[in-house]
């Protein structure tokens, strides 16, 4: 019971603190004189919800203080404040946080690059993978692995140089970018796991 009660208090405090922070955010988004900047409840309603959210914690702390449960009181206060602070850290950065988890891992990128390199070697194609650019473009793309290739010979990118990649199945969504040696022309091929293919120039995909 000594362990369970603090755990329950922590969970409830974190949930309550998160809700409290959310209501503060709604209050901040409410304009003056009833003018609502975003589609949020009126400020008076939000204030009422804030009070109703905070009231159980005030009562709990008061009762526990009477019973000299200082340890649980500390757990409630620390968990509540920490969750409020975390909310305002997470919310402004949630897009970046989601992108971090959605971006293919370095291992996945390495596996795709190895597969592409195998095609280059097997077909003796005039391309070299730029690992640094590939990683940078993948970070920007987020939802798929990008492999950035430069042609090591003069001339435009030929269809027969791209076709071997188009006919390849990858285990994850991939975007292949082929750049001419002087970077004056390029071809982009997007291949998803469902084998749907999209090219900047459709003639390269046929």
Task: Characterise the protein shown here.
By secondary structure, the chain is of the alpha+beta class. The chain contains 7 helices and 5 strands. It has helices at residues 4-29, 43-66, 70-90, 94-102, 106-123, 131-141, 159-166; strands at residues 127-129, 145-151, 174-179, 186-191, 197-199. Strands 1-2-3-4-5 form a 5-stranded mixed β-sheet. Strand 4 (186-191) and strand 5 (197-199) form a beta hairpin. It is elongated, with a radius of gyration of 28 Å. The termini are far apart.
Show unreliable segments: 32-38
- Residue share in helices? 55-70%
**Rg of Cα set:** 28 Å
Shape: elongated
Approximately what portion of the residues adopt beta-strand conformation?
5-15%
How would you write the strand order of the largest sheet?
A: 1-2-3-4-5
Largest sheet: 5 strands, mixed
Please state the average pLDDT score: 81
What's the order of the H and E elements?
HHHHHEHEHEEE
How many strand elements?
A: 5
* Number of H- or I-type helical stretches: 7
The class by helix and strand makeup works out as alpha+beta
- The separation of the N and C termini measures 69 Å
Oligomer: single chain
């Amino acid at each position: 019971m000594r362990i369970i009660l603090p755990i329950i208090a922590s969970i409830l405090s974190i949930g309550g603190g998160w809700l409290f922070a959310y209501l503060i955010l709604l209050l901040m988004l409410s304009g003056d004189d009833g003018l609502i900047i975003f589609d949020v409840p009126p400020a008076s309603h939000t204030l009422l919800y804030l009070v109703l959210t905070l009231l159980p914690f005030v009562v709990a702390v008061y009762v526990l203080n009477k019973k000299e449960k200082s340890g649980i009181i500390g757990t409630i206060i620390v968990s509540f404040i920490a969750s409020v602070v975390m909310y305002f850290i997470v919310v402004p950065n949630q897009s970046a946080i989601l992108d971090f988890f959605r971006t293919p891992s370095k291992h996945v990128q390495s596996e795709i690059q190895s597969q592409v390199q195998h095609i280059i070697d097997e077909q003796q194609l005039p391309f070299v993978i730029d690992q640094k650019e590939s990683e940078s473009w993948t970070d920007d793309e987020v939802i798929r692995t990008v492999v950035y290739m430069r042609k090591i010979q003069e001339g435009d990118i030929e269809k027969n140089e791209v076709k071997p990649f188009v006919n390849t199945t990858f285990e994850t969504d991939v975007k292949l970018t082929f750049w001419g040696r002087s970077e004056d022309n390029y071809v982009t091929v997007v291949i998803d796991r469902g084998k749907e293919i999209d090219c900047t120039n459709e003639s390269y995909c046929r």
